[in-house]
Structure formats: structure tokens, C-alpha cells
Specification:
5 domains, alpha/beta, seven-stranded mixed sheet, Helix Hairpins, five-stranded antiparallel sheet, 54% helix, disordered N terminus, Beta-Lactamase
Length: 704
């Protein structure tokens, strides 16, 4: 049985449209909320008075129908309801004035007591009607507003009921969606091969996936409640606990990696990532985590490390083999270069020896011919000087001479190297010199310059087929603006031009790179042009290469021009030989023939000589003979100790004893010999050179 709705919000039996029209009519016409403008109020009062008068006249006639009596009260009531009590008094006053005028006022007669009493009663009743009308007006307005409020409340209630129904439906849908989302998450998590879990604050698990359960080997509930510390590798446990406590306390993402025992007893590497969870208000809910089995990656990394170590060992062995092969190749190339020079050098030395031997033989056969003796000795001395120069060229080529830059006339160096360059080039090639630098000089190391020039000539020969030619040119050059690495200034340009195959742009761009070569394997190291470039840059200059395929190549050294060498002093030089002070000299020389010659030279200078064949013997002589005033020692000595070692020991034990060093080849001791504070004489040397070195050594001795 259906129950009736008895609440205040039950539907009104009258149609809503009719109720609305009635309310609108009352509100808009009979009892407005706000009093109408005064013209409307005055019109309403006039209409009310007129209606009351017409009603009395129609019932009582004109004489009895006019006057201030009860028929005015309905008009007063209506005017009061419409316009308020102020306008409701207007008909009252109008009726009283009109009645007084009808009863006697128009005839100038006073009202009778009966008429006056009637007038007073009328006024009191009219005022009561106005008061009642005003109260009724307020009551009706309150009732109208109450009904409007009730209607609005009913509308809001209906809207609230509708919204509540919608919210209920939304909640049901949200719960359905949440259940569906949770189901999808569970299905997704259970299908993932990685271990996944959700934890509450404090680390207690509230969800784990099937991979997690399978790893533990328990059922779901036991897997959720399992303590992971029982599965950790003992050595990993302290570090993991410390890191986990710090990570959970930070409420920030963190990761861990350790070994865990799987259900089958195997130790597996797991790398886990934990992400914090927060509710919409920012409250901490715990962590969600995922862990991957990285055991295979660890094994692969270990294998890769082992393979890398093996590869490094093999690479090291290969590098050693390559270095050995490269050293052997360079040695073979040196031997090849020496072999190429041997013929020409042997030819030159044979010519020099022919002159020396022939001159000595002529002097021996004709001892009484003074003119012939003088001519032959002069020729022998000149040949010996040429041999000394040739030896210096060979040492410079082998980089066995001390290297030091000095101001040199470039054209003179090129001319002095002509013979060596021709021999290196060979008879199958034409050779031309076109020197135009004149007396201009550059501050360079002469030995390095000659070696660089020889490198350029050898490269030109290798790039030129037999029958071609090589030309060396020199001339001054002025740079008015910066050109590449070269600043503006005055330069000397030394060019080596060949008529060979030339180079393309790609080869030209890499020509000076170390170890870059266009020669066949085993025929070149690719260091020639790089050494030339290094020498030029160290000298403050640069290298230019001009070439085109099939049109030969021109390699130019650009060297900064130095101040011209000063003219030789025209004043007579001091005669070092005559200026010698006779001294007691210890000569340390292991070659008997050289020792005999130097002994004779010292005797010619007025010195007395005591000789030793090694450093140990020299020290013994010095202990036995306290009168030794100067030591002249060769650098290269037998017995493991050199002349430099002797000089250094004497500088420490007998600093007042002058020492002069001499050698034709200093080898590894050349830097020490040059760096020490001792005069140095290069073999072979003349009597004057020896006398100058002895004088210099004696002048360096400071009194004690």
C-alpha cells in the first residue's frame, strides 16, 4: 500500500501554472512589495473615492448618496492595500471634507451635534480601517513572500534530490571504475616478469604480484608477510639495510641492488626501484616498488670485463710487436739511407785520402824540395778540412751533434752541403742550385737545417722518376700581412722543387702529418716532412707546399731573417800559440796514435805532458803527481767512465784544476759535455784551436 506524502514539500493540488499567475497578479497589482510612484497612488485614491460615491448615489440618490459614511471604507481598504496607510488616509480626509461641505459648509452653517458626532465616528472608523488595511497588507505580503520562499525551497530540494541521485550514480560509477582499474592493475602487475609490490608506511607490504610470489615460493599471504632480510646474501645485508632505511626515511625515489635467494635456492641479483606514494592532500601512503633480475647482466658484465682484460693484454702485446717492427723498419730505413750515402761518402773520402797520402808521399820522396813540400802540405791540410766538414755533415744527418741555433748565412750552408746532397740524390737525377739570399742570415741550427734540406732532397728524389731533376732555390720574402701561422715580417725562402708525380689536394692536406706517407709499405716512415715542419716551426718559421698531380711539387722553408753577421774585425788577431803559458798537463786519451800526436802538439806549445789511458789511471796520476796544472781529456773512454765523469769528479774534489774536453763524437754524453763549465774542442782540431781552448780553461780558474 502506497503511503501519501504528508511533508511540507508535498505537491500543491492546484496546477503550478495557475498558482504562479495568481501570485504574480497579487504581487504586481493588489499588494506590490514597494509602494508605487505617487501619481499611481493618487490615481488609486481618486478611483476609490469615486467608486464609493457612485455606489451610494446608485443606492440612495444624489442627496443621500453623498457624504462621509461607511461606503467609503472599502475604498479606503483597497487604497491602503495598494499604496500603504499614508495614501489610505487620503480618501478618509477627502470624504470628511466632502461631507462637511455637503452638510453645511457650502451654506455657511455650522454642523449639528448629530452631524459632528457622525463625522467623528466616521473618522475613527476610517482610521481603524486604514490600520486594519495596513496590517492586512503586511500579512498578505508576508504570506506571499512565504509562499515564494516555500516554492524556492521546493525547487532547491528537487535540485538537491536530483544532484544527490546523480552523486549516488557517480559514486557507483567511480566505484565500478576503481574496481575495474584495480583489476587491470592486478592483471598487468601479475603479467609482468619483474617483481612488483605496494607497501604502507613502515614498509609493510599490502600487495605483491605473481612474479613476487613465485620468487618467494610461498602462497600469496605468506609472500606478502615474508621478511626479505631472511633472503639477503649475508655480505650484502648490512649495506642494503642501511640504504633502505635511509631511502624510506627520505620519502624520495631510491634504488637498491643485492643478491637474494630464490625459492629454488639460487642466489640472484635483484635491482629494485622504489617510488613514494602520496594522497591528494599530500599525505605519505608508502612506496610502490619494482625489482628486476640482473643476474644475467652481471654475468655478461663479468665476461665482458674478462674479455676486455684479455683484449688489453693482446693489444699491449700487439703494440709491443708493432713497436718492435717499427723500430726494425726504421733501423732498416736508416741502413738503407746509410747505404745510399755510403758510395758517395766513400768516394769523397777516397779522394781526400788520395790527396793526403799522395802529398805525404811526395814530401817523403822529395824532402829537400821546399816549394813542393809547402804545396803538398797545403793540399793535405785542405783535404783534411774537407774530411772534417764531411764528418760534421754525417753527424748532423745522424743527429749526433749538439744542436744550438746561431746566426748563419743560409746560402753558405746550402753551398757547403752541395756535395752531400748530390751524393744522396744520385747520378740518375739532375741537380741545380739557384741561390739568391746573398749575405742574408737566419738564426737556425745549422745541423738541423742541413738535415731538413737533405730530407727534402731525398723526398724529391723518391717522388721523381729517373731522368728528372731537383732544384734548390733561395731568396728573400716580405710578408705584409699574417699568412697562416707566420706573422708579417722579413723571411728567407728556401725551396726544393722536383719534376715528379706531384700530390692531389687530399694528400697535400696531410703531407706534414707524422707517419703519413704515400710510399709503399716498408719504404717510408712518414716522418720526413713532419721533421722538416717541426724544425721550421721551432725556428720561428713555417713550411709551404705547392703541388698538382703530374706537375711536381715545391716544398719551401720560410725562415725569419736575422740581423746580418758583423764584418770580421780587421785588427790583427792575438797569437794564441805565442801567448801560451807553459804548464804541466795531464793528457787522458785511450788511442795511442792520437795521444802521441796531441802530446807533440802540447810540446810545441811549451807544455810538459804526463799521459793516462782511462779515467782510473788519470785519477792515479793526479794522486801521484801533485804538480799537474791542467787536464786535457777525451770524452769517450774505456772502463765505463767517460771524460765528463772525470771532469765532474775533479770539479767536486779539485775545483781549481782547469779541464778541457775533446771528442770527435760525444754520443750520449754530448749534453753533459756541452752543459758543463769546461772548454770543448771537436776533433780534429788545429794547434791554434787547442791553444785557444787551453787559454780559455786557464782563464776560467778562480783563486781559492
Amino acid at each position: 500500500m502506497e503511503s501519501k506524502d504528508t511533508s511540507i514539500f508535498a505537491p500543491n493540488p492546484s496546477p503550478p501554472e495557475e498558482r504562479g499567475r495568481t501570485h504574480a497578479l497579487i504581487s504586481a497589482w493588489l499588494i506590490p512589495k514597494v509602494p508605487p510612484p505617487w501619481p499611481l497612488c493618487a490615481l488609486a485614491a481618486l478611483i476609490g473615492v469615486a467608486m464609493a460615491v457612485l455606489m451610494r448615489v446608485s443606492l440612495l440618490g444624489l442627496q443621500g448618496g453623498v457624504g462621509a459614511t461607511q461606503p467609503f471604507f472599502p475604498a479606503v481598504m483597497l487604497v491602503t492595500l495598494y499604496a500603504g496607510w499614508r495614501w489610505g488616509l487620503v480618501p478618509v480626509v477627502a470624504g470628511a471634507v466632502f461631507g462637511w461641505w455637503l452638510w453645511g459648509g457650502r451654506q455657511g452653517q455650522p454642523l449639528s451635534e448629530e452631524e459632528l458626532a457622525t463625522m467623528v465616528i466616521y473618522l475613527l472608523c476610517a482610521v481603524m480601517v486604514v490600520a486594519v488595511g495596513e496590517g492586512l497588507r503586511g500579512a498578505l505580503r508576508g504570506l506571499t513572500e512565504a509562499r515564494e520562499t516555500l516554492a524556492q525551497t521546493e525547487d532547491r530540494l528537487r535540485l538537491t534530490q536530483t544532484a544527490a541521485g546523480a552523486d549516488a550514480r557517480g559514486r557507483d560509477q567511480a566505484e565500478d571504475q576503481m574496481r575495474e582499474s584495480e583489476a587491470r592493475f592486478r592483471n598487468l602487475a601479475d603479467s609482468a616478469p619483474a617483481l612488483m609490490w605496494v607497501s604502507r608506511p613502515g614498509g609493510v607490504r599490502e600487495f605483491v604480484n605473481q612474479a613476487y610470489v613465485a620468487f618467494t615460493g610461498h602462497d600469496y599471504d605468506d609472500a606478502v608477510a615474508m621478511d626479505w632480510r631472511t633472503r639477503l646474501y649475508p655480505e650484502d645485508l648490512p649495506g642494503i639495510l642501511k640504504a633502505q632505511i635511509a631511502g624510506e626515511a627520505s620519502r624520495k625515489p631510491f634504488e637498491l641492488e643485492a643478491r637474494y635467494r630464490r625459492a629454488d635456492g639460487q642466489w640472484r641479483w635483484l635491482r629494485s626501484f622504489s617510488q613514494p606514494r602520496f594522497d591528494p592532500a599530500g599525505g605519505f601512503l608508502g612506496f610502490i616498488g619494482i625489482a628486476f633480475d640482473t643476474t644475467e647482466a652481471k654475468l655478461a658484465q663479468s665476461d665482458l670485463t674478462r674479455l676486455t682484460e684479455m683484449l688489453e693484454e693482446r693489444v699491449a702485446a700487439t703494440v709491443v710487436e708493432r713497436d718492435a717492427a717499427q723500430a726494425a723498419l726504421m733501423q732498416a730505413q736508416k741502413l738503407e739511407a746509410i747505404g745510399q750515402l755510403t758510395g758517395g761518402v766513400a768516394h769523397d773520402f777516397n779522394n781526400l785520402l788520395t790527396v793526403i797520402i799522395g802529398a805525404l808521399d811526395a814530401v817523403e820522396r822529395h824532402p829537400g824540395d821546399a816549394a813542393r813540400r809547402e804545396r803538398m802540405l797545403t793540399a793535405a791540410a785542405a783535404a783534411a778540412k774537407r774530411g772534417e766538414k764531411l764528418t760534421q755533415h754525417l753527424l748532423a744527418f745522424a743527429r749526433r751533434q749538439p744542436l744550438k741555433p746561431e746566426v748563419c748565412r743560409v746560402d753558405r750552408l746550402i753551398a757547403e752541403s752541395e756535395s752531400l746532397l748530390k751524393r744522396a740524390l744520385g747520378d740518375a737525377y739532375g741537380f741545380h742550385l739557384r741561390l739568391g739570399a746573398g749575405v742574408r742570415s737566419a738564426k737556425i741550427d745549422a745541423g738541423q737545417f742541413e738535415a731538413a734540406l737533405l730530407n727534402l732532397v731525398v723526398n724529391a728524389r723518391d717522388a721523381t722518376p729517373p731522368g728528372g731533376s731537383v732544384t734548390i732555390e733561395s731568396h728573400p720574402l716580405t710578408l705584409v700581412r699574417k699568412q697562416g701561422e707566420l706573422e708579417p715580417g722579413e723571411y728567407l725562402r728556401v725551396s726544393v722543387r722536383d719534376t715528379g708525380m706531384g700530390m692531389d689536394a687530399a694528400t697535400l692536406a696531410r703531407a706534414v702529418e707524422p707517419f703519413f706517407t704515400t710510399k709503399a709499405p716498408g719504404q717510408g716512415t712518414g716522418l720526413g716532412l713532419s721533421q722538416v715542419y717541426g724544425f721550421a716551426r721551432q725556428s720561428g718559421g713555417g713550411v709551404e707546399i705547392e703541388s698538382q698531380p703530374g706537375q711536381g711539387a715545391t716544398v719551401s722553408l720560410l725562415l725569419p731573417e736575422a740581423a746580418t753577421l758583423p764584418a770580421e774585425d780587421a785588427a790583427p788577431r792575438r797569437d794564441r800559440i805565442q801567448a801560451q803559458t807553459p804548464s804541466h798537463v795531464l793528457l787522458v786519451e785511450d788511442d795511442p796514435q792520437v795521444a802521441e800526436l796531441i802530446d807533440a802538439m802540447l810540446a810545441d806549445l811549451g807544455h810538459t805532458v804526463v799521459r793516462a789511458g782511462c779515467v782510473e789511471e788519470a785519477l792515479k796520476r793526479l794522486d801521484e803527481d801533485e804538480g799537474v796544472q791542467l787536464v786535457l781529456s777525451d770524452v769517450i773512454m774505456p772502463g765505463g767512465r767517460s771524460g765528463v765523469d772525470l771532469a765532474e769528479q775533479l770539479a767536486a774534489t779539485r775545483p781549481g784544476l782547469p779541464v778541457v774536453l775533446c771528442s770527435g763524437y760525444t754520443g750520449g754524453d754530448q749534453g753533459r759535455a756541452r752543459a758543463g763549465d769546461w772548454p770543448f774542442v771537436t776533433k780534429p782540431f788545429s794547434l791554434e784551436t787547442l791553444a785557444q781552448a787551453l787559454t780559455e780553461a786557464q782563464g776560467r780558474v778562480r783563486p781559492h
